[in-house]
Structures are given as C-alpha cells and as structure tokens.
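dumping these here so i dont lose them again. two proteins, back to back, each one seq then structure tokens. dont judge the mess
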Amino acid sequence: MGLNLEDKKAVVAEVAAEVAKAQTIVLAEYRGIQVSQLTQLRANARKSGVYLRVLKNTLVRRAVQGTSFEGLAEHMSGPIIYSISEDAVAAAKVLNDFAKANDKLVLTAGCYDGNVLDKAGVQALASIPSREELLARLLGVMQAPVSGFARALAALAAQKGETESV
C-alpha cells in the first residue's frame, strides 16, 4: 500500500532535515541484496552516525530541491539506498566498505561540498581517513616530542643515579 499525502510530506520533511545538516550524500543500487545483509549494513551505518534509508526517489528529489545536493536528482532512478551523513566521509565509507564485500551493492553517485561525484569519486572520498582518525594521528604526532623528552629525562636521571652509587 502506498503512502498517503500526509505520510509523503512527513518523509520529505524528515529527509530535508537530514539533508540540511549533511555534508555528504551517497547513492547506491541495492538489487538482489538479502534482508540479513541490509540489516547488517544498517547496523554499520548506525554505528557510524549515518542516516541510511531506502526511499522513494521522487520524495528525495523534493527534499534536495534548492540545496547543494540538487545535482544528484538526475542519478535518482531505480532501487536506490540513500546514505546521508554530517561527517564528510562516513556516508561514502559505510557504503564503499559494504560494496567491497558484497558485489550486489553498486555505488552510483554521491555529492560532497556541492560537487556531484561518480563512483570513482565516492571511492576516493571513502579512502580519506575519518575525522577521528585524523585527530588521533595529530595527537600522536603532538605527543611524540613530549614523550621522547620524558624518556630522555628518565634515562638521564637513571644514569645519574648509577654514577652516584658507584
């Protein structure tokens, strides 16, 4: 049974709210994927903070109208699963990682920073480390000189203690 007008308006409003705070939207075709695999994909998306839904293309076209994601409208045909995220790479990473293990999920297009991406562009975006990974690397780089200095002081103190006991 189809959605009535009020339900359609609610879906458009919900998607428009997600799109308003999103940095990235990725589209993928999901023909032939088993329900258990889709459930796993949804669980991975939830863990990554990604809004992942199978939606009517016409409703999503209305939701993205007038936004920087409007260019994706021409790619919205067929059975599409929509991945929307506030994190620039999370939406692409979730679908790309799943597509590597499951050949039935086919990345079709994406949009980041107002630029429509093809499949290769989405894969390139997915290969960028996440914000958390980059922050962890930065923290490691910042801690390295301090921890090296602390080790040098400890070694110096240990060496001084050995010479005093002799």
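---- next one ----
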Amino acid sequence: MSGTKTVAVVISGRVQGVSYRAWTEREARARGLSGHVLNCEDGTVEAMFSGPEAAVDAMLAACRQGPPGARVDDVVATAPAEAPPSGFRILS
C-alpha cells in the first residue's frame, strides 16, 4: 500500500496561454488529488499535488506532456514549504 505524497512543482516551457492551469485542475481532480495551480510572473506554472503516491507520480508524468498546445521544457518537484489545501483549485 502506498502512502500520501505531497510535492511542490514548477513547470517551465510554453505553459501559459495554453489552458495549462485548467487542464491541471481537471487532471488532478480526476486523480483525487488536493492542491493548487497558478501562473507565475516569470512564465512558469507552479502547482502543489497531494494524495496517494501513485496518483501524484502519475500527475507528474502527465505534467511532462501537458495539454495540447503546451511545450513543457522541465518539471521540477520538491518538498513543499506549506501544507496542502483540501480540494484542488486554481489560484490567481
């Protein structure tokens, strides 16, 4: 049985203006994950995913592809500095 995993993620490439946040929200909710996603001023997208380890790992793999129109150059996952929220939401 796998435990709970929580990661903070920075996704870089052409990830803004291609509905990456909306796609991430749908994908994370479909996997039963908690967390959030937001666009950053430097053109990256930041996210937090929390849930069963296998689901978080699958979400990280999906983030490397992203939605149609995205070009993902890098996905960097680290330990989060904050606790995950309940549910999943898009932050502005």
